[in-house]
Specification:
Length: 146
């Protein structure tokens, strides 16, 4: 009886761990897709990564004053078509992905290159929600520094 109970507990634990790992990988894939879309100018793929009412913000510091600036999603989306393919290259590292049911967050330090030249770096903070068609970015805020 104890062996059977132990096997059931191990099976349930390993199944839950595998599902949690799969969810983290799915979250990471949405974020990777967003950056691939930026690099290739694929506005359809880019739009598919986001929830309908996404919030885009950037933290900027000028003259020792920190401000949070909101960016218009549609304007950003449209701007992607103005750049040659490969001109926008944001290189990220996943430093943490956390998921709980239908909410996930990811922390990704980055270096941004424009046409092969270093432009700036910072950190992206993503908040994602799991909707009917999968994980979507609901909120993106970043820092930028030279």
């Amino acid at each position: 009886m104890h062996k059977v109970l132990f096997i059931i507990i191990v099976f349930i634990s390993s199944t839950a761990f595998a599902q949690h790992k799969n969810e983290k990988q799915a979250v990471q894939q949405v974020i990777r897709n967003m950056f691939t879309a930026m690099q290739t100018g694929d506005t359809t793929l880019f739009r598919s990564c986001f929830a309908p009412k996404v919030i885009f913000q950037t933290i900027v510091t000028k003259e020792n004053q920190t401000q949070v600036k909101s960016e218009d999603f549609e304007a950003f989306l449209k701007s992607l078509t103005k750049y040659p393919k490969g001109a926008l290259d944001e290189r990220i590292t996943f430093k943490g992905v956390h998921e709980d049911g239908t909410l996930a967050s990811a922390w990704t330090p980055y270096q941004f290159y424009y046409q092969g030249k270093f432009s700036h770096e910072g950190v992206n903070s993503f908040q994602l929600v799991k909707l009917g068609d999968g994980w979507k970015i609901q909120y993106l805020i970043d820092t930028r520094r030279k």
